[in-house]
From TrEMBL:
The active site is at residue 104. One of its GO terms (molecular function) is DNA-directed DNA polymerase activity. Poorly processive, error-prone DNA polymerase involved in untargeted mutagenesis. Copies undamaged DNA at stalled replication forks, which arise in vivo from mismatched or misaligned primer ends. These misaligned primers can be extended by PolIV. Exhibits no 3'-5' exonuclease (proofreading) activity. May be involved in translesional synthesis, in conjunction with the beta clamp from PolIII. Mg(2+) binds at residues 13, 103. GO terms for cellular component: cytosol. It holds the Pfam family IMS_HHH. Binds 2 magnesium ions per subunit. This is DNA polymerase IV. Monomer. The keyword ATP-binding does not apply. It catalyses: DNA(n) + a 2'-deoxyribonucleoside 5'-triphosphate = DNA(n+1) + diphosphate. The lineage of its organism: Bacteria, Bacillati, Actinomycetota, Actinomycetes, Mycobacteriales. Its EC number is 2.7.7.7.
Length: 400
């Protein structure tokens, strides 16, 4: 929450980021429906979204909805460079920047009035700089709390700016659909709809206890707070990475994949994660599984190991256990995205040594494989289960 009580928190969010980069770099794509990624939609331009095309949708379904869609392959290096340039603009605007993902951030502009003007003036200049310097459209929401600033940016999309004045917060928030509340996905929305709850105003009329009886105590308390715009989180700068993760979109193809094919995806993701951990000298204790389903709902499961590790085998064993636990849910709802993360990170890479200290240490084997890959390339050594399989395109991890 803004310490001044004023609307001086900005949520800046690039519009259809990957697709916008493609339209920026290829003028023939501008104003046309564009999808990044063929097998699975990684991003869709607003022209494509107008036909119902959405992220994580299968490429075939996207083409059926929009036969004239133009499909382009992803260029991750271009997106990384664009993100870096945009964040330079953010940090030139204010030192108080909290990254949320590669294409969005919160900015605290409180106290900059004398040197930079009002939050609206600051947001307007930020949008212009991103447009001119980086060539991309960006939407900015401005409010007193982080939660409401993000809602404002969602309402202002695409390529807009919206200020929610402190004395108009609930008037703005309450008419919105309940899905605008953080944490409310399709499944939670369905639970609320059964009780006749469709808007944020409907939620605000209930107590935290009543909401908890419908969606669980923790979620009930969260919904009650957000429906009254209670959000005391400050913009946090210099946040250290709390997890190392990777995810892969499967699209509708995920529903026809065999158990062995899904396991190969799991192996590939865990291999990438643990390799990065060892390269950064990190160990971790908690393995987190994140799933997305056909209805665009999400679920997560976690398992905390007895000790911190960066061993591929140890993390893979936990990951497979989590997938086995989630199998009934996947069979019921259909799987379109799978991701893993290792949290409870030890930044010093501390790991408990175990007796006996023999040559069978899995970390020693991992280190040898890492060295071979570093010298001769990632494909020089691979796991047998991955031979002949498409490793797929890893998507950036996004917050829940």
């Amino acid at each position: 929450m803004s310490s001044s009580g004023q609307a001086d928190i900005l949520h800046a969010d690039l519009d259809s980021f990957y697709a916008s980069v493609e339209q920026r770099d290829d003028p023939t794509l501008r104003g046309r429906p564009v999808v990044v990624g063929g097998g699975v939609v990684l991003a869709a331009s607003y022209e494509a979204k107008a036909y119902g095309v959405r992220t994580a949708m299968g490429g075939g379904q996207a083409r059926r909805l929009c036969p004239q869609v133009i499909v382009v392959p992803p260029r991750m290096r271009a997106y990384t460079e664009a993100s870096r340039a945009v964040f330079e603009v953010f940090r030139d605007t204010t030192p108080l920047v909290e990254p949320v993902s590669v294409d969005e951030a919160f900015l605290d502009v409180g106290g900059l009035g004398r040197v930079s003007g009002t939050p609206v003036q600051i947001g307007t200049r930020l949008r212009e700089r991103v447009r001119v310097d980086v060539g991309l459209p960006i939407t900015v929401g401005i409010a007193r709390t982080k939660f409401l600033a993000k809602v404002a940016s969602q309402e202002a999309k695409p390529d807009g700016l919206l200020l929610v004045e402190p004395d108009r917060e609930l008037a703005f928030l309450h008419p919105l659909p309940v899905r605008r509340l953080w944490g409310v996905g399709a499944k939670t929305a369905d639970k609320l709809r059964v009780h006749g709850i469709h808007t944020v105003a409907d939620v605000a009329e209930l107590s935290a206890t009543s909401l908890g009886a419908m969606v669980g105590p923790a979620m009930g308390r969260q919904l009650y707070a957000l429906a009254h715009n209670i959000d005391r989180r400050a913009v946090a700068t210099g946040v250290r990475r709390r997890s190392v993760g990777a995810q892969r979109a499967l699209g509708r193809a995920g529903n026809t994949m065999s158990a062995s094919e899904i396991d190969a995806v799991v192996v590939n993701l865990v291999d990438r994660i643990t390799r990065r951990m060892r390269a950064a000298g990190r160990t971790g204790r908690t393995v987190v599984l994140r799933l997305r389903f056909d209805d665009f709902g999400r679920a997560s499961r976690s398992h905390t190991l007895a000790r911190a590790t960066a061993s591929t085998e140890a993390v893979l064993s936990a990951a497979r256990g989590l997938m086995a636990e989630a199998t009934p849910l996947i069979a019921e709802r259909g799987l379109t995205l799978v991701g893993f993360a290792v949290s409870n990170i030890d930044r010093d890479g501390a790991a408990q040594l175990e007796l006996p200290f023999d040559a069978g240490d899995p970390i020693a084997l991992d280190a040898a494989v890492d060295e071979v890959r570093q010298r001769f390339g990632t494909a020089a050594v691979t796991r047998g289960v991955l031979l002949g399989r498409d490793p797929g395109l890893e998507m950036p991890m996004l917050p829940d």
